[in-house]
Amino acid sequence: MKVLPAAEYRLDRDQTENLTEQREAVQSILSEVRAKGDAAVRDLTKRFDRAELDDLRIPDEMYESAYAQVTPAFVEALREAIVNIRVYHEAQKRTSWMLPSADGSLLGQIVRPLKRVGVYVPGGLAPLPSTALMNVIPAQVAGVPEIVVTTPPDAEGRVHPGILVALKELGITEAYRIGGAQAIGALAYGTETIRPVDKITGPGNVYVALAKQAVYGLVAIDMIAGPSDILVIADETADPDYVAADLLSQAEHDPMAQSICVTPSHDLAMRVATALVEQIGKLPRREIAEAAIRGQGAILVTKDLDEAVEVANRIAPEHLELMVAQPTEWLGRIENAGAIFLGPYSTEPVGDYFAGPNHTLPTYGTARFSSPLSLDDFVKKSSVIQYGKQALLANGEKIIALAETEGLDAHANAVRIRLQKEGGSIQ
């Protein structure tokens, strides 16, 4: 991993990646699904996942056998994580509200859940039961009545048992063993078997991300997720083994994942670099982690912690760890981060799996303007406006003036005709 002064590191992310070939492939897949429905989904699943499916829906017996394929420790941890995640998201609930006025007007906002949501759960080489929890639970807490899950099968048409157990524990009753862009198309357009949804959430590979981008507008989506990233701000008190381990926790995700340590201590920087070499050789996913560390990893040395925070805010990481002596004193200085982890024991996997906050986070610098997945992603809001007669008489001429300034005479007339009928003055 490169150790260099922060001033020599290019902080601006490269946005020039050419995905023309992938976009064309995604458009072709979506067109097939839209035109041919289930038949296209089956053909595409056979082509990409090598699975021949008679029934797209995950069969009941697959859930029943899944528990025998996972450990009791996994089930126990899963159940406790579900409780933690549910408690956290319960605290995000919003309620409808109304503001009555003395003049008879009533203004307010109605908050109601979306009707039908589709959740994509990655499978394949890196099945993610935790993604099911992080997407389904906030939808359930928000009150979404219909939640449908899609997840890719293996060549035998089977779904990873960890995902199946997660879906069973969450009470999901509608789930399909399809993945890739074809799953996104099925959720967006609908097929003979799968009814269309109002919103699609959940991460996936580049084809899933591009498919979500392509159907946005017909349906809502949560975000376009890029490669995962982590940034650790560390001072001389940090344990280099902890820092290195946390950097590798993201590097093993994807060869394009970004792991950065920012520190004012050159001594710590060198010790972290040494720890990385020692730890990376022990990882089962060593090749992926090495590619990520070699390609996007860096240890940046700053003149002080103030500069370290400035660098972090510029990068706007998905995960930001404050591994410094007094982390809470620096919390208010962090402006851009998907999730902030305070202190040496708040390692990133605590948030990924168990603590409660959502692990679906803005990536690739989008924490500058985006937020983690939350209850807000599963509700919609309607404004309520009830104007009384006295309120319209008192404010009608002002509304007319604003409308006429914009050249919208029909807008002005809609108010003027009421003032004339109700005895208001018209200039």
TrEMBL record:
<feature type="binding site">
    <location>
        <position position="253"/>
    </location>
    <ligand>
        <name>substrate</name>
    </ligand>
</feature>
<feature type="binding site">
    <location>
        <position position="250"/>
    </location>
    <ligand>
        <name>Zn(2+)</name>
    </ligand>
</feature>
<dbReference type="InterPro" id="IPR016161">
    <property type="entry name" value="Ald_DH/histidinol_DH"/>
</dbReference>
<feature type="binding site">
    <location>
        <position position="319"/>
    </location>
    <ligand>
        <name>substrate</name>
    </ligand>
</feature>
<keyword id="KW-0560">Oxidoreductase</keyword>
<dbReference type="Pfam" id="PF00815">
    <property type="entry name" value="Histidinol_dh"/>
</dbReference>
<feature type="binding site">
    <location>
        <position position="228"/>
    </location>
    <ligand>
        <name>substrate</name>
    </ligand>
</feature>
<feature type="binding site">
    <location>
        <position position="352"/>
    </location>
    <ligand>
        <name>Zn(2+)</name>
    </ligand>
</feature>
<keyword id="KW-0862">Zinc</keyword>
<dbReference type="InterPro" id="IPR001692">
    <property type="entry name" value="Histidinol_DH_CS"/>
</dbReference>
<keyword id="KW-0479">Metal-binding</keyword>
<comment type="function">
    <text>Catalyzes the sequential NAD-dependent oxidations of L-histidinol to L-histidinaldehyde and then to L-histidine.</text>
</comment>
<keyword id="KW-0028">Amino-acid biosynthesis</keyword>
<comment type="similarity">
    <text>Belongs to the histidinol dehydrogenase family.</text>
</comment>
<dbReference type="InterPro" id="IPR012131">
    <property type="entry name" value="Hstdl_DH"/>
</dbReference>
<feature type="active site" description="Proton acceptor">
    <location>
        <position position="319"/>
    </location>
</feature>
<feature type="binding site">
    <location>
        <position position="120"/>
    </location>
    <ligand>
        <name>NAD(+)</name>
    </ligand>
</feature>
<comment type="pathway">
    <text>Amino-acid biosynthesis; L-histidine biosynthesis; L-histidine from 5-phospho-alpha-D-ribose 1-diphosphate: step 9/9.</text>
</comment>
<feature type="binding site">
    <location>
        <position position="406"/>
    </location>
    <ligand>
        <name>substrate</name>
    </ligand>
</feature>
<feature type="active site" description="Proton acceptor">
    <location>
        <position position="318"/>
    </location>
</feature>
<feature type="binding site">
    <location>
        <position position="352"/>
    </location>
    <ligand>
        <name>substrate</name>
    </ligand>
</feature>
<feature type="binding site">
    <location>
        <position position="250"/>
    </location>
    <ligand>
        <name>substrate</name>
    </ligand>
</feature>
<feature type="binding site">
    <location>
        <position position="411"/>
    </location>
    <ligand>
        <name>substrate</name>
    </ligand>
</feature>
<protein>
    <recommendedName>
        <fullName>Histidinol dehydrogenase</fullName>
        <ecNumber>1.1.1.23</ecNumber>
    </recommendedName>
</protein>
<keyword id="KW-0520">NAD</keyword>
<feature type="binding site">
    <location>
        <position position="253"/>
    </location>
    <ligand>
        <name>Zn(2+)</name>
    </ligand>
</feature>
<dbReference type="GO" id="GO:0004399">
    <property type="term" value="F:histidinol dehydrogenase activity"/>
</dbReference>
<keyword id="KW-0368">Histidine biosynthesis</keyword>
<feature type="binding site">
    <location>
        <position position="182"/>
    </location>
    <ligand>
        <name>NAD(+)</name>
    </ligand>
</feature>
<feature type="binding site">
    <location>
        <position position="205"/>
    </location>
    <ligand>
        <name>NAD(+)</name>
    </ligand>
</feature>
<feature type="binding site">
    <location>
        <position position="411"/>
    </location>
    <ligand>
        <name>Zn(2+)</name>
    </ligand>
</feature>
<dbReference type="InterPro" id="IPR022695">
    <property type="entry name" value="Histidinol_DH_monofunct"/>
</dbReference>
